Amino acid sequence: MTAYVVNKYGDSNVFEDRTVETPSPDDDEVLVEVAATSVNPIDAKIRRGDLPDLSPLLPAILHGDVAGTVAAVGSKVTKYNVGDRVFGLAGGVTDYPGALAEYTVTDETLLASVPENIDFEAAAALPIAGLTAWEMVVNEAAIQSENQVLVHGGTGGVGHFAVQYAAATGADVVATVSSAEKADQAGNLGATDTANYETESVQAYTAEYASSGGFDVVIDTVGDENLARSFEAVAPYGTVVSTESSSVPRPDLLHEKALSLNLVLTIVPLLTDEPLSRLQEGLKNLSKHTSAGDVSPLIDSVYELSDVEQAHRRAEHPDRIGKVVLEN
Hints:
Helix content is 29%, strand content 27%. The chain has helices at residues 41-48, 120-124, 127-140, 159-168, 180-189, 202-209, 227-233, 251-256, 268-271, 277-291, 308-315; strands at residues 2-6, 15-19, 29-38, 60-61, 65-73, 85-89, 103-107, 111-113, 148-152, 172-177, 193-196, 215-220, 234-242, 260-263, 299-304, 323-327. Helix 11 (308-315) links the parallel strand 15 and strand 16 (323-327).
């Protein structure tokens, strides 16, 4: 089969197309004929060599998101049959092979059925970003209808799902954006209001949109240095949930405001001995809410799998809105 392999770390031009052996599923695994995958920040970070502890051995096949058709099943697989449409997590980290290939294998627990109302390209945009947003909004922040919520990066890969999940609770949701086009998209996703972080100060939009000295919950899909803005915007005793925390600026505000800071890394079960069933439940919820129309993936652009270099370049561009998808 053809695979797009990283043999060294670097820019988006490090991908090489190679002919490799088609994998065979173990007893509890499913062989998926890849129809589509999508780019997540973790894919770019591994490609660049920024996450050595999470990176697979080189040469490596990257990308965690997968959507496609079941081509073969292991002897103990009970949930799926050949020909089923599935989406989920392929891996692309540590010992788990990724989805940048014609076929990939993955544990049946890491898959769910593709909702009937979406195609493979949309399904491939769901797994990591959708699961991360679910963890942030539902499991960690437990957002309620009476909450005032700020979502940083409201039209990003995770952010656009977070806006939809938060809005579905009935909460007032303010999304930070960087352009009028992104503001329109955030409104379409359910944001009550938007704030342009390039032209408006944290103090200004917090005073305008939050009525209790700050937002009850801040969903920070940017993290790191942006956490300082989150700590400024959140109300005393409030909750900040983020995906990035290699540095925590303004720790004084954490103490002064008695804040809760919760961190999310969806793929923890792939990196530890935590049960994969947590991811299975998340995928089922994602499928259910997508089927019901509560959430819908926002796709920026679609590339051929062979154009993975261009896809990664687009995914890292600041003008991107939603997810970048590759189809096979």
